[in-house]
Structures are given as structure tokens and as C-alpha cells.
């Protein structure tokens, strides 16, 4: 998959995610688009934990895994938004 629509620094981060977490460039791009490099790393770390738990006995299908990751992503964004609102209230 080509990443020509992204600036070079973003392409490099997406490629790094793919390499670190042994996923495809397309998967790395999708995680990256959820909130950037650090956000993607948090989600992929959670994904690794869930997959390692699954190998120990918990059975997760791909859809359930994606739902958990998406929910975690939403929680991260909710927390960030809450922090921004609090900072804005302090300014007023």
C-alpha cells in the first residue's frame, strides 16, 4: 500500500507502527488515523495484550477485538476532551 497522500514524517511513523507491532501498512495507517502516532501506539499495545490473553485461553474474534479497541480509543478521546474543557474553564 502506498502512503503518498501523507507527508513523509507521517509515512515514517506509519511504517514504524507496522514494523513494531508486526501489522500491515494498511492496519498501521488505520490505527494512525484514529488519533496519531502516540494514540495508535496505545491502541496497538492494548491489542497486543488482548491477543496474548486470547492465546492463554480467552477467545476473541476479530470483531470483538476491534470493538474493544474502538471503545478504548473513545475513552482516550473523552479524557483528552475533558482535559481541554477544564483548561478552557480555568482561562475564563
The proportion of strand residues reads under 5%
Mean pLDDT across every amino acid position: 87
Q: What does the largest sheet look like?
A: none
Percent helix among the residues?
over 70%
Number of strands: 0
Termini, distance in Å?
Answer: 47 Å
What is the domain total for the residues?
1
Report the principal-axis shape.
Answer: flat
How would you spell out the order of helices and strands?
A: HHHH
Helix/strand-derived class?
Answer: mainly alpha
Question: Could you tell me the radius of gyration in angstroms?
Answer: 16 Å
Fold and architecture overview:
The protein has four helices and no strands. It is mainly α. The longest helix has 30 residues. It is flat.
Q: Can you tag this structure with a few keywords?
A:
single chain, 92 residues, mainly alpha, 79% helix, flat
Short description:
This protein is mainly alpha-helical and 92 residues long. It contains four helices and no strands. The longest helix is centred in the last third of the chain and has 30 residues, at 62-91.
